[in-house]
């Protein structure tokens, strides 16, 4: 394969992935007005159902336009030898390959973040605002941006620097050391994310003593779930949308409830949602997902080690000096079809786990309370009740509301 043919292969992959995603969005949009199944007839009052369709259409049109603009900008960057220009700029600051790589990715990532900020701003302050979801102030938006960039520089930069250093030190064997590093980081984040990262952006407080806490603790004791604490996060600081999640394992496991969830659901429904989260822990889903993530990372890094030293990867992007950072860019595009397939498989596994967690909640608590909570959350989030089956199969990490209700009532 010549550098030119590889270059056009990269372009073809980028365009094909865009076209497939756009086709799925178009197919999905055609189902917005489908007849609502009988089991879901009580989710939306008529006026709110019409608002939910308008919300989905607004997001659909916005995504088509913004993704098309992103595609054009990316293709221009490729055809105008943007990567070669950034590489030369990075090399003007240092001769050290690790430093050059960090400067290169720093310019790419920060530039990409700046260019994407208008679209993120529009989605939050126009679309989400119009439909009553947004609670983010412009001050919070700006502070979040700066915090995100700082986190990217400190955490992402450190990991990337170590991986490039491993490559310079060990050559093709770098993937073993990089895999070990990323695996340790992944386990640490799973255990301590709620303690280390969440407080940077949100305030977490222990759930106050009272009827809800007593009911949750009684349920946890009943099913043998040793709960260190229950936290409430100030999700209403940014959105009216509600959520709950389980994090950590061992002595660090905790349940976090959004304050919007406590506001939207009654006690029985909240405990049913918690029972679902406990089901994930009891069924070992947290550990299995962690192991799958570590395994996929190892496979990806091994594939990367087979190609990274090939000068063709750099030559395809018109870069004179072969390097790890340019090879990583080219490999990332080449690997994206495989990544799409592994993502699809992970979604299939995730949906199976959601059914199992629902079953656990049904067996240990109350299936109708969980159904009611799912209906309320779908209504309050303007969820799509009639998605296209292809969209569900490829992109949904959770079964649809209809599928979950039928499973809980079977």
From TrEMBL:
<keyword id="KW-0479">Metal-binding</keyword>
<dbReference type="GO" id="GO:0004222">
    <property type="term" value="F:metalloendopeptidase activity"/>
</dbReference>
<dbReference type="InterPro" id="IPR027057">
    <property type="entry name" value="CAXX_Prtase_1"/>
</dbReference>
<keyword id="KW-0482">Metalloprotease</keyword>
<keyword id="KW-0812">Transmembrane</keyword>
<keyword id="KW-0645">Protease</keyword>
<dbReference type="InterPro" id="IPR001915">
    <property type="entry name" value="Peptidase_M48"/>
</dbReference>
<dbReference type="InterPro" id="IPR032456">
    <property type="entry name" value="Peptidase_M48_N"/>
</dbReference>
<comment type="similarity">
    <text>Belongs to the peptidase M48 family.</text>
</comment>
<feature type="domain" description="Peptidase M48">
    <location>
        <begin position="207"/>
        <end position="410"/>
    </location>
</feature>
<dbReference type="GO" id="GO:0071586">
    <property type="term" value="P:CAAX-box protein processing"/>
</dbReference>
<feature type="active site">
    <location>
        <position position="277"/>
    </location>
</feature>
<feature type="active site" description="Proton donor">
    <location>
        <position position="358"/>
    </location>
</feature>
<feature type="transmembrane region" description="Helical">
    <location>
        <begin position="6"/>
        <end position="27"/>
    </location>
</feature>
<feature type="transmembrane region" description="Helical">
    <location>
        <begin position="173"/>
        <end position="193"/>
    </location>
</feature>
<feature type="transmembrane region" description="Helical">
    <location>
        <begin position="98"/>
        <end position="125"/>
    </location>
</feature>
<feature type="transmembrane region" description="Helical">
    <location>
        <begin position="328"/>
        <end position="349"/>
    </location>
</feature>
<feature type="transmembrane region" description="Helical">
    <location>
        <begin position="286"/>
        <end position="308"/>
    </location>
</feature>
<feature type="transmembrane region" description="Helical">
    <location>
        <begin position="146"/>
        <end position="167"/>
    </location>
</feature>
<feature type="binding site">
    <location>
        <position position="354"/>
    </location>
    <ligand>
        <name>Zn(2+)</name>
    </ligand>
</feature>
<feature type="binding site">
    <location>
        <position position="276"/>
    </location>
    <ligand>
        <name>Zn(2+)</name>
    </ligand>
</feature>
<feature type="transmembrane region" description="Helical">
    <location>
        <begin position="64"/>
        <end position="86"/>
    </location>
</feature>
<dbReference type="GO" id="GO:0046872">
    <property type="term" value="F:metal ion binding"/>
</dbReference>
<protein>
    <submittedName>
        <fullName>STE24 endopeptidase</fullName>
    </submittedName>
</protein>
<dbReference type="Pfam" id="PF16491">
    <property type="entry name" value="Peptidase_M48_N"/>
</dbReference>
<feature type="domain" description="CAAX prenyl protease 1 N-terminal">
    <location>
        <begin position="30"/>
        <end position="203"/>
    </location>
</feature>
<keyword id="KW-0256">Endoplasmic reticulum</keyword>
<feature type="binding site">
    <location>
        <position position="280"/>
    </location>
    <ligand>
        <name>Zn(2+)</name>
    </ligand>
</feature>
<keyword id="KW-0472">Membrane</keyword>
<dbReference type="Pfam" id="PF01435">
    <property type="entry name" value="Peptidase_M48"/>
</dbReference>
<keyword id="KW-0862">Zinc</keyword>
<keyword id="KW-1133">Transmembrane helix</keyword>
<keyword id="KW-0378">Hydrolase</keyword>
